[in-house]
Amino acid sequence: MNVPVFLEFVEIKTKLASLFPFVLGTLFTLYHFGSINALNTILFFIAMVVFDMATTAINNTMDYVKAKNLVYRDEENILGKAGISVKQAATIIVSMIAFAALLGLILAARTNLLLLVIGALCFAIGILYTFGPFPISRMPLGEVASGLTMGFGIFFIAVFVNVPAGTLASLLLKWPNFTLAGNIANLLVILLQSAPLVFTIANIMLANNICDHETDISNHRYTLTFYIGKPVAVRLYAWLYYGAFAATTISVLFGIYPVWMLFIWAIFPIIQRNINRFKAKQDKATTFNLAIKNLILYHGLEIILLIVSLILK
């Protein structure tokens, strides 16, 4: 397998969905908590990207194995197009997961045992997303799982590995007893700050499932769109973006974010225009990428505003 094929196999171009929570989590840690641990940040970044690539590779492999539509399997799926064997794909996937897990163990040793629990949960969700007899992606839970795992999970860990022990939560084990402690106020702050990420990342999966609705049914994939119907799914797509703007505004009103963050509303007309375009036509080739553009636009401006806030602070 050459490099271009590998990069298509792991869909490297889609990794922005995990990059934004990482960057925003790190910047927010600097702004709100005034803390940073460079080595932990680098280790987490590498582990995050490698595991994200592994989950995408699992997704492509399982889609190939379980495909009922032979045209899709042989002409559209990367394994069929590039002639990658399932055994070769499995070897690459296991290697990436093992490497990411090793980095996770090192991070847990450098921070707190709780990170091991959180990391194991994220690994389980990522692997079971498309693997196993009842993969999450083939159920009406895909949007929730991707939004929470990447939007909240990555943001939370990016903060967790950079702040002093106990700032968010900690797990202490002294056999046979264990103690779980945490700061509810700080955890609620993290939940609110990650909400726009949860919504925009979930919308990428939702837009994908809306566009692939008929193909998914032919491949026996019954996603959220199948259960609530395309008209409701398209309305949900719009309301998730409105929820992102609402969460950022609430953060400013509570004094968590500086007033400069309200400039996020400057891009609302563009987001609304993209929403209207998607409402008019749900097509994988022409309008699906609007969800990715909206994510880049919203969180790109959010990053700029946070950097400005750090400078002014």
From TrEMBL:
Keywords: Membrane, Menaquinone biosynthesis, Transferase, Transmembrane, Transmembrane helix
Subcellular location: Membrane
UniProt keyword Transmembrane, yes or no: yes
Gene Ontology terms describing biological process: menaquinone biosynthetic process; vitamin K biosynthetic process
Membrane association type: Multi-pass membrane protein
A Gene Ontology cellular-component term: membrane
Annotated protein name in UniProt: 1,4-dihydroxy-2-naphthoate octaprenyltransferase
